[in-house]
Amino acid sequence: MNPVDQFTPQEPILFNPVDMLSPEYLAQSAEALNKRISPLYSADEERWLSELLPLAKPSIEERDAAAEQTRKLVEHVRNDGKAVKMVDSLLLEYSLDTQEGILLMSLAEALIRVPDNYTADALIHDKMSVADWKKHIKNDNGFMVNASTWGMMMTGRVVSIDSSTTASGFLDRMTKKMGEPVIRSAMQKAMRIMGHQFVLGETIEDANKNSQPYRNRGYTYSFDMLGEAAITHKDAEKYFNDYLHAIRATANVKVKEGMPKPSVSIKLSALHPRYEATQEAQVMGLLRQRCLLLIEAAREVNVDISIDAEEADRLEISLKLFESLYRDNLTADWDGLGIVVQGYSKRAIAVLAWLARLSTEVGDRIPVRLVKGAYWDTEIKLAQQKGLSGYPVWTRKEGTDTAYLACARFLLSDHLRGLIWPQFATHNAHTLSSIMTMSAHRDFEFQRLHGMGDALYDHILQAYEIPVRIYAPVGAHKDLLPYLVRRLLENGANSSFVHQLLDKSYPIEKLTVHPYDKLLGNATLHNPDIPLPLEIYGERRASFGPNIFVESQWLPFKSAIDSHLHKTWSATSIINGKAVDTYEVDGQTNQLDTQTVLAPWNHEVSAGKVTYANAEVARQAIDVAVAGQDVWKNVPAAKRAEILRKIAELYEENYAELMALCQVEAGKTMQDGIDEIKEAVDFCRFYADEAERLDDVVHEFTDLAGKQSRQVYKARGTFVCISPWNFPLAIYTGQIVAALAAGNTVVAKPAEQTSLVAHFGAQLMYQAGIPAEALQLVIGAGDVGGALTAADNIAGVIFTGSTQTAQRINQSLNDHAQTSGELPVFIAETGGQNAMIVDSTALPEQVVRDAVLSAFGSAGQRCSACRILCVQEEMADDLIELLQGNMAELSVGNPLYAATDVGPVIDADAKHGLEAHIERMSAEPTATILAQTPMSSSSVVSQEKSTFVLPTAIEVKSIDVIGGEHFGPILHVLRYQARDLNKLIDAINNTGFGLTLGIHSRIENTVEHIERRAFVGNTYINRNQIGAVVNVQPFGGCGLSGTGPKAGGPHYVARLMQLSSETVNAEQSAAHMTATETQTQTTTQTELA
């Protein structure tokens, strides 16, 4: 059974949305209605949206009335001379489909927080010198655009510009003429002007004062304290105090009589650094307690609270928390606890029904703000990255608009009056008109964003007397970034309604079309330009990953894994299809050694038994593989590819048992286990494609004798594949299937620490159709590997492991060459002294999240893991404080728990080596231990009966003091001066390693410079530096970090083959030409389809 069927609901739609319009629907219990939410997480868009359509479908009268009302609203706004102002005008002028719009966002995002002048100047140069700012200065632009543009160009009284000046030349000339401080000052002023338009005030008191003119006109407010996603408890406490202060101060904000009272919006991610579904104990503990304290304060002063919506993965845990708060005695007889629901979410309407039932049961009215949703881009990319079965959001804008109206019709139902107070947040004039025409009453309010839609909503307030609430950010401009980016992504593209409303050249007729009609005007309800996550690679299916943050996937997945945890597995070598537990010496049969494997996270748990081979068994395996070469290389490439794809299918069918094995034997955490299986599956499918692609490659030429010849790819022979314990399934599988794809036979020698995973994987390979003679499995320690690589009849070795072992194998293969005359192929991927370079334009919170994941994910046991965090001096103190706080939030313990972030290291040898290094660093005068995360209190395992190493951060004065690679959860931190960047890069290069490098900077010139100068295989920019995806980010290093083509790339399988020349007769040549023409034609048709 494929994993999508195993771990996602077979029938996600458990109700008919039309039934919701009847009061009887709410007779069902809240518990029953809650069970209908999670299955819809990634429901089939075509089917689910078609079931929602009847709720959104307008009657003829509604359609006509909404169109007419929209026309009037648009005309009113366009005729209002003051309409296009502030943020509206900025978004209109600098839309995100212009180079200047993107550069402006980049600059605004980073400049405010850069502490040092040197980097600020570099950032300004980087963004300013590549765009044409002059074209944005116009007489009819509002103050906002011209003020920003003047800042961009330092014009006005400072300098005049002639028409022939380029932006780049202008900036250089200005720098020489006035000096960088003047330019920097002008730029920072421009950024502050822009910040003022988005932020109502830096403090709640400022906001009260600045909002007075709007309140006089009849508006009410919801104040949003800027700052979110706390990554430390200190952050969370600060945000909690900000919210507390805001609530008390909001009590003094007076609105016109009859208007709803002001409220404060809170983000749960700001109140706890671990607000996520896997950390339910913390969410329902400390986070719940903080919410109750805020609720208590709000009730005291008669201020409402609204819980903001965030990413899709947090929805279900937020609903659990909301229900717990809403049912608490503290909120009894209070209708001030509100929640936000996102219309783009496939679960939205089910959430609304559940909230209505909750209100029925408890009796207090719930304010519900219905928004379209602000994380759409993130949700799409995350679903693709995780390999989900579908998207949690609609893929068409008109799909979201239609679903929003379906939700609105339900909220406006007569039987919901008194249960829910609907708050419709939108800047879309058609959505506004549709809501007003479909509603038989006026028991609701509209909401808009501060700085946007003034003219539209001024008119709504005056003409229709419907309450309007302004959602207004309050806080320091440096905290503006996440809010600003969401607003720009929502409204900055020229396809957004906000943009089209203000653009007088855009026909009004197009704005009056009902989204229901627009949606049905498409050939499909979903967007075919956004393939499903599992189809993003076209014909090659992407690997599936269950979402452990969504209950309807997590519960069946966990249950399936648990069903295997009681098992013990066994592993032996497999030669010619038979298990080997004996060997012969001088005609006498001897038993091979068998050992019990203990789980690294608890030595009282046995994973199973392993029988280890010796050198004699290794030699036997080589002989069988060499003898079987003729049979396997003659299997057609298409058949080999078919078998490899079958391996991928069997891996996915056995997902749960592979997970259990990876967790028990290798100590993998839940998400690490999922990523491991996904990568193994991706290798099988990609290398299957490569086998077919290379089989079609033919190089035709005329040889020196004038004969027609050609070169084709052929197998080389037998490959020894030696894989590591840190990726016991993924790298092990990748090596084997690449060699098999090429037509070679394989002798696989996995790391002895993870023999059980390897043996199980080999059994699935045989089950898929790999012949017994094509794959030999040799289970054993290093001496067995030595015997394999010493064989003089192998075609090559694929190795992942330590640099020292790779050097020994290389020497052994050189000895072969001296005897046989031909050098075997050697592909090695070894260790790294991987650095992450961070300049002061980087966002500190993002850096810390990425560095912590890169250093401590997989307990630091990744070749690509970050070992040295290099931080620019000016931001180092603040960043180190954040790092210390974030490390304190890590959960170190039993990998079987979903809450665990860091599991054990692989064995006692690894543990002792790492702890010896920490000990040496604590005695080293030029090093300081910055932080060490203790074992989680929920982990009942003693450190003596396990191999945990506590995640540790150490500040060092130089790279030299570190002394080589330390393969575990240890991060070194190094400060550097911006002017010494080249010296830093050279010091990193001088380690001799060259595997991965992370760069965090908003200056493209800096990024390009580091990338050019650094000697590494893979560079990661403004993200973590682990998790290379097969065929998307081929992985491999240089120098001491490896040799040969990158794994998962286009040259890997080809390296395991050889180009063989053969003479072609005329018939063969003609037949090949015909085949090529046919194939080319087919490809072209496919591309055009």
Verbal overview:
The chain is an alpha/beta fold and 1089 residues long. It has 42 helices and 31 strands. An eight-stranded parallel β-barrel has the order 1-2-3-4-5-6-7-8, surrounded by five helices. α6 runs antiparallel to α22 and α17 runs parallel beside α19.
Summed up:
By secondary structure, this protein is α/β, with parallel strands linked by helices. The strands form seven sheets. The protein has an eight-stranded parallel β-barrel with strand order 1-2-3-4-5-6-7-8, surrounded by five helices. Strand 16 and strand 17 (708-715) form a beta hairpin.
Question: How many β-strand runs?
Answer: 31
How would you describe the shape?
A: globular
Number of DSSP helical runs: 42
Strand order of the largest sheet: 1-2-3-4-5-6-7-8
What percentage of the residues does DSSP assign to strands (E)? 5-15%
Measured as a percent range, the helix fraction is 40-55%
Report on the biggest sheet. 8 strands, parallel, barrel
- Unreliable stretches (pLDDT < 50, length at least 5) are 141-168, 1073-1089
Q: What's the rounded overall pLDDT mean? A: 90
Radius of gyration: 32 Å
Secondary-structure content class: alpha/beta
Task: Give the N-terminus to C-terminus distance in angstroms.
Answer: 32 Å
